[in-house]
């Protein structure tokens, strides 16, 4: 599966909308002979950071959330189209931070930074060492679910392991200085670039190959498992979302019409075995819905039925095309149609202090009836209603998924 490394967040070390461009090979006057010199000089040459109009860098100053949303995004180095093509995050306190808005939007869409419950982003707020370390770890492709323990200790431990703090002291909740921020980013710049290398290739329309497969000219509703999303250029040169979709035994890539935003499925939906539905016209996705809302976004199809299985249920027995599960304390038999689609979860164990505390779903693969065993966990769906009470889609997990709290 093409994994869009859901990363980002970046520091910019630009204190205003004024950006100063230094000549290649030039440096700033107040970092010569300091511990910051190599990092600051290299990052300036790469266009990741900039100094002030007076030729200084002011390494003892602090950086803000807006500035932090500029260094790492620049380190990730997305294409201009990808950077400008992100959904407006809608924060109401970005006045005066117009220069940072596209970096903030990019960071938010990629899931590396969030706003606050009150709808504010607080772009002026100083960033701490632990916050910046978290951003850098995320920019290298790691996720919360990859790390055991609680924040910030889990991210600080991973940052130390990855070399973020090489040459500097970890001072946790203190505001990070501009000089040390440069060193932290410089220490792992190559790892950030490597983690995002595939993602940052210029977007291209994959229409030269029939990547849409059976959905190439399809109109109507299609049901399957959403695996990932990416930004691409359509045949008109417009930036749209492309959906990696598992339908039956086929993985297809279909483009949206660019009129609605698409996000890769979050961990809750992956863990939940949720089914996705695409509303399509001529091979183009017009909207997308999922089973948690009974596919409201694509018109509440009358054939949809979760057969009373609103969450994972354990298989007590299986006989031919009939499975027995326990619902509400009662053993119930459910029938699976002959031509049903089957999907099996690809899971990853999660550990804390060396002890397994659960498993999470990373993806799904095509399966068949023979993949269901006693003791497995399943989700059941009917999407057309052609055979009432019978499952047309079966999602399988070979173990219980979720994290013990």
Describe it.
The chain has 405 residues and is of the alpha+beta class. The chain has helices spanning 37-45, 65-76, 80-84, 101-109, 129-139, 153-162, 178-187, 189-195, 267-272; strands at 220-233, 239-247, 250-255, 276-281, 284-290, 313-319, 322-327, 330-352, 355-367, 377-381, 390-397, 402-403. It has a five-stranded antiparallel sheet with strand order 3-2-1-4-5, with no helix packed on it. Strand 6 (313-319) and strand 7 form a beta hairpin. Helix 1 (37-45) packs across helix 7 (178-187) and helix 2 (65-76) packs parallel to helix 5. It starts with 36 loop residues before the first helix and ends with a strand.
The description of the largest β-sheet is:
5 strands, antiparallel
Name the overall outline: elongated
Cross-sheet strand order for the largest sheet: 3-2-1-4-5
Give the integer mean of the pLDDT values. Answer: 85
> Can you count the beta strands?
12
As a percent range, the share of helical residues equals: 10-25%
Structural class: alpha+beta
Total DSSP helices: 9
| Rg calc | 24 Å
Note the main attributes of this structure.
12 strands, elongated, five-stranded mixed β-barrel, alpha+beta, 3 domains, five-stranded antiparallel β-sheet, OB fold (Dihydrolipoamide Acetyltransferase, E2P), 9 helices, disordered N terminus, 405 residues
What is the structure about, briefly put?
The protein folds into three domains: 37-195, no CATH class; 206-298, OB fold (Dihydrolipoamide Acetyltransferase, E2P) (Beta Barrel), CATH 2.40.50; 313-403, no CATH class. Helix content is 20%, strand content 26%. The chain has helices at residues 37-45, 65-76, 80-84, 101-109, 129-139, 153-162, 178-187, 189-195, 267-272; strands spanning 220-233, 239-247, 250-255, 276-281, 284-290, 313-319, 322-327, 330-352, 355-367, 377-381, 390-397, 402-403.
